[in-house]
């Protein structure tokens, strides 16, 4: 080689190497259309979920009015059925606590305002004989689970529940609690049907505050809520607990804990697939992962673990009620909690890393 050309060749080689390194270290750019995913989520999952929920709560309010006008076993049975339908619909909407359903001043998220459990019997009973206020800080004295306590009661007989509604104050509290749920859900749905949907779809980045970030964070948060509070807490698996506390299950008074947990996990799976409650498939987190390097492997691992969760859920008997099951035979619930714990890393750590979306909440989960 010509010695005069040697330094030039070395410099060129170095430059090429530097450029190559810069290119390989650059973040992987995906071609995924996040706005299309957001549109599918808004139009086929979120808005339908809130629409169906409001329809169900309207029916619940009608049944509550009929019951308070004529408290008997037939009207109570109709009220029980309406509550079950409304709370089932709630399981498909409770993962969208952002935007219109998010915190605003002293108002907490819709989940906290209408879905807080366990409720405080003492606060509810005190409010019944006092001056009910459905806008104070006592969120454990209102919402779906406060209504559940009122209409299912603690005496285990419908006759005893009907007897308690000889009190006009109790009737008024029930009607006020249901009306408050309806109002809050109506405000959220109106906002989505108004200008928020366009705002949501257009805000298609991945930074904190973007629709993608809010959607993903609430997806993970909702999953952890099912794992930690609907199962882990009554099992006594949360930090600081030394024993099971079965009375802390969701839907304790109606005995529908297992049913509602199953619906909640189905709603989580639907968000993963971008699939409506009626089974219509669209773009979801699964398709988003397909567009990034390493995404397919994560999909396979995630769905393999989801299958384990579903198998454990199927082995969880619907009777006796979950609170009783935890006392007499906790093994099936323990197994489900273990499988949900294994699922956490895929939904939370690995997805966050591959998609480049930061976790913006603290769950205290230790993972």
UniProtKB/TrEMBL annotation:
Q: Which InterPro entries match?
A: Imelysin-like, Imelysin-like_IPPA, Imelysin_sf
Q: What is this protein called?
A: Imelysin family protein
Q: Does the keyword Signal apply?
A: yes
Where the record annotates domain Imelysin-like, the positions are 46-343
Tell me one Pfam family matched here: Peptidase_M75
Name the predominant localization.
other
CDD domains documented for this protein: Imelysin-like_IPPA
Keyword terms of this UniProt record: Signal
Signal peptide positions on this chain: none
Question: Where does it live in the cell?
Answer: Cell envelope
């Amino acid at each position: 080689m010509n010695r005069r050309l040697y330094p030039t060749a070395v410099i060129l080689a170095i430059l090429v190497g530097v450029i190559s390194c810069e290119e390989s270290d650059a973040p992987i750019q995906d071609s995924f259309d996040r706005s299309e995913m957001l549109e599918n989520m808004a139009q086929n999952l979120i808005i339908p979920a809130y629409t169906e929920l409001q329809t169900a709560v309207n029916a619940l309010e009608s049944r509550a009015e009929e019951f308070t006008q004529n408290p008997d076993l037939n009207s109570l049975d109709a009220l029980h059925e309406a509550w079950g339908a409304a709370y089932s619909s709630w399981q498909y909407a409770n993962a969208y606590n952002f935007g219109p359903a998010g915190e605003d001043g002293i108002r907490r998220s819709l989940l906290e305002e209408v879905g807080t459990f366990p409720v405080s019997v003492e606060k509810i009973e005190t409010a019944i004989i006092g001056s009910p206020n459905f806008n104070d800080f006592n969120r454990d004295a209102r919402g779906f689970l406060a209504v559940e306590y009122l209409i299912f009661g603690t005496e285990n007989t419908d006759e005893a529940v009907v007897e308690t509604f000889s009190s006009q104050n109790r009737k008024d509290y029930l009607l006020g609690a249901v009306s408050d749920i309806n109002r809050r859900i109506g405000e959220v749905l109106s906002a989505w049907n108004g200008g928020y949907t366009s705002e949501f779809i257009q805000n298609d980045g991945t930074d904190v505050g973007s629709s993608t970030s809010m959607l993903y964070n609430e997806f993970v948060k909702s999953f952890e809520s099912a794992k930690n509070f609907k199962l882990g807490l009554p099992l006594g698996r949360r930090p600081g607990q030394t024993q099971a506390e079965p009375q802390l299950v969701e839907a304790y008074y109606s005995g529908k804990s297992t049913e509602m947990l199953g619906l909640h996990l189905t709603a989580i799976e639907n968000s993963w697939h971008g699939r409506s409650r009626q089974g219509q498939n669209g773009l979801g987190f699964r398709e988003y992962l397909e567009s990034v390097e390493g995404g397919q492997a994560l999909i396979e691992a995630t769905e393999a673990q989801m299958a384990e969760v579903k198998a454990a859920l199927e082995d969880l008997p619907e009777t006796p009620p979950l609170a009783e099951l935890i006392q007499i035979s906790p093994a099936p619930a323990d197994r489900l909690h273990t499988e949900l714990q294994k699922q956490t890393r895929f939904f939370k750590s690995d997805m966050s890393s591959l998609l480049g979306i930061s976790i913006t909440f603290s769950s205290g989960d230790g993972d």
